[in-house]
Specification:
The chain has 145 residues and is α+β, with helices and mostly antiparallel strands. It is built from three helices and six strands.
């Protein structure tokens, strides 16, 4: 679990700046969650659920559950990447994982598993995953775990 999948793609690149630090001089929760949010947008866009598609079909997304594991902490000046994969794809829900990685050492700093859904913004209900989304997401399923 502390290692990321060989099949992961880089969904976010960032650097830890002074404004990203908490009172202990490590990357703040806001910084880490910001990276995760950016990575989720990239992951969804890679699967065809981009801003235009969402607006055209009035579809949103919601995270239902998070599991966060910290191994090391990002520190000032550190270049980091998130590498992402899907773990599970169901009829209406899916689980994916982001690994936050120190680019200099390739060491995993944290990982976060997220269970999410796409939902109809007008009806306020989860929708069945579109076939095009499912097909692209299946290509990003973790294969070496």
């Amino acid at each position: 679990p502390q290692n990321y999948s060989r099949d992961a793609f880089i969904s976010c690149k960032s650097a830890v700046n002074t404004w990203d630090l908490d009172h202990e001089a490590v990357g703040s929760s806001q910084f880490k969650i910001g990276c995760v949010s950016d990575a989720a947008t990239q992951l969804f866009t890679k699967c065809g659920v981009n801003h235009k598609w969402r607006a055209d079909y009035q579809i949103g997304s919601a995270a239902l559950d998070y599991i966060v594991r910290y191994y090391n902490y990002p520190t000032i000046g550190m270049a980091v990447s998130l590498k992402s994969n899907f773990i599970e794809i169901n009829e209406k829900s899916f689980k994916f994982c982001h690994h936050l990685i120190d680019d200099a050492s390739n060491r995993v700093l944290m990982d976060i598993q997220i269970v999410a859904v796409l939902f109809d913004l007008k009806k306020r209900v989860a929708i069945k995953l579109p076939k095009s989304f499912r097909k692209k997401a299946e290509a990003l399923l973790i294969k070496n775990q």
